[in-house]
Amino acid sequence: MTDAVRATWRNTTHDWAAEVDHAHLDAVRRAPQTYAPGGVRHLILEVLAYAADEAEATGTGRALVTPHPDGSVSVTDDGRGTDTRLDAAGRPVKKPVMATKDLRFFDAPDAPLLPDGHPRRGMSVVAALSDWLIHTNRRANGSWTQRYEHGVPVTDLVPLPDDGTTGTRVHFRPAAGLTAATGTGLTDWPDHLTVEVRR
User: Fold this and answer.
1) Buried b vs exposed e over 169-199: b needs ≥16 C-beta within 10 Å?
2) Is residue 168 helix, strand or coil?
3) Which residues of the chain have pLDDT under 50?
4) Nearest Cα to 193, choosing from 59, 24, 83?
């Protein structure tokens, strides 16, 4: 049965009707050199591009990139958080940024270039090319976290207590075989976004 409320939501960056696009994720996983040229650094830039979008929309923003001892990386920003709405039954539905293609960039021949000189493809590339990814989201109307493995959600949205902040944290462990990241080139963004790389 079609959700009458959800059917009214306009697709701008992702398809609200699709929670997981398995074919899309599989295609990304089969071609890591195409979708993560340069390896982990490109994945970090894909995440930071969303922080830059938020900073542009709100006028200013900050992001923190943190490498962890287990080889994972987290990117935290102070934006408004990932769009999350309630369906007709009152259940929270988050925009499917991790598990479906970004409609603006993924198939676009003129996709904007990230600071590494390669095209932006979207957050789903990061999720698909990570063994696991934890998406933590804080918005003015509620907070939650969700875990993905190889781009596929393996938990529901888990509510979090409000801590008075908004923003997004994307913590991911890149798949084996991707070139390790260096800190160079991660801070080359327009003035509205300030990026700190924690050593």
Assistant:
1) bbbbbbbeebeebeeebbeebeeebebebee
2) strand
3) 1
4) 59
* 143 to 36, 65, 79, 129, 140: CA distances (angstroms): 30, 21, 13, 25, 8
For residue 189, the number of C-alpha atoms closer than 13 Å in the C-beta half-sphere is: 24
Residue pair 48/195 in contact (Cβ under 8 Å)? The answer is yes
- Residues 1-38 have pLDDT tens digits of 457 777 788 888 898 888 899 999 999 999 999 999 98
- The candidate with the shortest Cα–Cα distance to 168, out of 55, 68, 10, 29, is 55
Dihedral Cα 122, 62, 161, 89, nearest 10 deg: -40
> Within 13 A of 75's CA, how many CA atoms are on the CB side?
27
Report field, pTM of the whole predicted structure over 0.90: yes
Say if CB 53 and CB 61 are below 8 A apart: no
Q: Please, which contacts does 87-91 make with residues 24 or more away whose CB atoms are closer than 8 Å?
A: 87/3, 87/5, 87/6, 88/3, 88/4, 88/5, 88/6, 89/3
And the tokens for 94? 């988050």
List all residues 6 or more positions away from 85 whose beta carbon is below 8 Å from its beta carbon.
6, 9, 92, 93
What pLDDT score was predicted for residue 104?
95
Which position has the token pair 């924690």?
A: 198
Gap between the Cα atoms of 132 and 148, Å rounded: 5
Assigned token pair, 99 = 């598990």
